[in-house]
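quick one, two chains, predict together pls
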Amino acid sequence: VTISSQVQVALLTDYDTNSAYSMAYQRLYASIRLNWDSEQVHQQTVLLATPTAYHGQATAAANIAIASAQSGTPTILVDANLRTPSLQQRFGTGEHAGLSDLLQTEHISSQHFDACLSPTFVPELRLLGAGKARLSLQEINLLFATRLRNVVEGLRHYLAEAESRPGMIIFHSAPILTDIEATSLSTLVEQTFLLIVAGQTTRAQARRAQEQLQRVHARLVGAILLDT
Amino acid sequence: VGIAALYSGYQYYHLHKTPGALKDYQSMVIVQIGLQSTTKATDQSYADYVSASETLADEYTTGPLFTMPEFDNQVLQQIQTDKSLIEQRYGPDLGDLTPSAIGNALSATRAHSLVTVTATWATQAGAWAIANAVGEVTVKNIDSYIGYVIGNGSTPGAARATPAAGSSTGNLVQPPVEARVVSQATDPVIIAGPLANRPALLLALVLVALVIGIALAFLIEYLDDRIRSRDDVIQVLQLPVYGEVPRSPVPRQNHVRR
């Protein structure tokens, strides 16, 4: 599948591995990896979210996932931004069943995951796209509140069964302050990172996002600064 | 700040190029106004002469003489006559000589019958030329402009044709008005022009613009709530920063993913 060049420029695999851009993501992944005691937690789940909408947010999540996969960690990237999904297009996996379909499934089996997870052009990286099912806002809110835990746990088991090595699941979600999904997700993952966009995110937005995550006792471990 | 600096620079350049704006030259000539001594018997006392001289000097000084076109034209003619002398002394740069400009360049003060006429002009040669010519024209034609009696045909032009017409001759007993140059036109001295304080004002404008610019920059910085650096993040969130990702550069190559 050929995708537009505009989308192509965004991903880490398009850059020289020795470039400053590439190295920055490798270092970032290494720092995140340091927090992870793979003896205790075999499948690490990470949420990356910005306080407000930023067009490069999905790219950042995808690039961290690519850096993770390139370092040899079996990685699943989840597009949990069901309102404006973008990762399927970005990785060129086409219209494919994904998270929205899993959320609608009452009893999820590993066959469901097999059907929904698509391999990508990066070895070790699989994508769980937003899915084919189009959900209304109410449905998204309801399913995130009721079924999301099943999906996250299911993914963990699936990865544990599929891979003997420790694996990583990275969630890309809608912005924290505009939608409730990121906050819901943050309660289900081991590590939440606040993506701060330099020159765009205000102090007030950063504080409000932090407060919102702290209110639900999310494990907000740190921030990642994205230069624009 | 940039606009103010450009504006000031342009204005200063303009001022610099405008002759007489920043500096002028002044030349002074002192003339004495009085009544011609006469051999004819008159009843007047010396005090009357003194009094008449002072009145005439006052007329000369404060009256409309200097702005009269006839007078200014005569001054201009005199300058043309003296041209070679002027060029020899101060060079050819006379400036833009017109009768009305000459009228505006002249001012006078008097002490009793001594009148100091000052010519203020943008060029050295012009200032001296005007002062010198005023002295000469005054000496030649004073009686056609001021007097204390009106004689036959004593009008500006007519009097010129017949100097001191009938005043000292014939049967008229009033002594005619006379003038003599007491002190020749002085060497021109530089004085500040009418716009001499403009450069200081322009400098002040630039400084004020600079201060306002800096203040605005600080204000904008103060009001700008956006996070710009790693330190800002640490300060606001009290959280560790795991990484800083630079802006995405142009990729190495376009490749097609499958």
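The longest strand of chain B covers residues 23-35.
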